[in-house]
User: What shape does this take?
Amino acid sequence: MHTLGISALTHDPAAALLGPSGELIAAFEESKLLRQRETTGIPRNAIQFCLEQAGIGWQELAGVAVAWRPLRAWTRQAWFRIKTLPRAPIASGYYQARLLGELGRELNNFRILRLMAGGDRRRVVAFDHHLAHAASAFFASPFERATLLTLDEQGDGLVGRIALGEGTHIRPLRHIAFPHSPAWVYTMTTDLLGFARHRDEHKTQWLALQGEPVYKNLFLQLLGARHPHAPRLNQRYFRRGFAQRLAFSPATLAALDLDPRAPRPGDAAHRSRIAASLQQACSELVLALAEAACRHTGIRQLCLAGGFFLNTALVADLQERFGAEAVFVQPAAGNEGTAVGAAWLHFYSSGHRSRAPAPASLALGPDFTSEEAKRALDNCKARYRWLDTEAEKLEQTIRLLQAGKIVAWCQGRAEFGPRALGHRSLLASPWAPYIKENLNEYIKHREAFRPFALSVTAEAADRCFDSPGPNLSLTTLARVRPPFRERLQPFTLPGDRVRLHVVERTANPLFHRLLQQFGEQAPAPLLVNTSFNLFGEPLVVTPRDAIRSFYCSGVDALVLGNFLLTKE
Assistant: This one.
């Protein structure tokens, strides 16, 4: 029988489905199906997609696993607020009331989920949020034994966990209690820099590479880096009760050369210095934490999960310390990945002793047929051309790329997770003039310091880049080799680093062939790859999403299955 996994019923909900042998059949986020950046509650559409993908109903599920324990989360957070009550009674009372409201909603969601599953309470099983994070990384990794480290803002009232993975078992060792979260500090600093909290943390990461870490020691003291086994935020750097949206104390803001009455940094150089200081302090803290965890377990193979490890620069630092082959990051490291982890925890707790194969690809979302694509195109009264064969499709796409066009590439099943990996991608030739400017000006509308990723075939990766590992899912950074540095300069970060996506033939055969054939008439089988979506929206999923995004942006051409649309 199958196993359904559901992430925490708070933010970014997702669903995942395992087959009878533990293989991952489907996984997808609710936000992409609803076309909203932020969603909460039960991921009804994602659940329905997973069940339809396997052709089953609720009655054919061995169990439903949820990566959230709301009562445990409420207890831990409420206890912290009780302890802060004498220092900040108003703020503590406010948070206690809000926590009770959230608890009521989450318990009601569990009640509804049990009714959806047939009314049997035993069929819906709750797992620790951070254990689900750890399972999502360990059971997707190539390791039989590994040290597991998770970090996020807070899940189940914890902000991180250290565990030991062996075979099909995960043994919790230590946890990091709320509110001692480097991810929370990262979010607050993102807000301080004028970016959107819980959405633009990646901007802080890229901005950090532009500045000097002049405030690093301040952030190290603030983060409690003297406690590598269990980081503890230094309370004197925060407002009483860790209250208010910007909870940094006036003294902390002054130490960052900010006016406590109007704390937003004005100039770009100041913002980059703050971002760089935070990034390097977090890197040192996590390196020390990982070293301490590995000493405790005696294993230097490391699996990482939790939203904090979507920070690719941080992951690159860990790989430099531990070795690329010894570090595995869950590509869907955020809340959505816990759906997969919860499903695996339920599957292995049911007595299965052999490890299921790790997914070869993250193309785990919805697919579409030619009939569905044609119906959407005709409904939109779009002009299109049908490409009879795969060879013709590749030939026409390469012709457009060589002409300096930006091509939307919408093929097969959509990707699970936050990154486009050659199924719902915007592609362009890195050798064409003004490509970065055109992508930013007419499509992405984003800051110049944010880099675009480069996709390259696995066979050519070592010729062009010094990569710390396989780099199959855009989870880390690589360095450009000297012969290509000048040509790829618009896409490189300080230190000749680059966001690199290595494409293996087995993982994405069609995209691999496109790169390979493009490289026959170019310096390398290499394309610029960024997500196919409108500004502020999730990745496209359906043909209708793709058509709308194509006509509402400056994309030059759309290859939708075997249909070709161009703007003449």
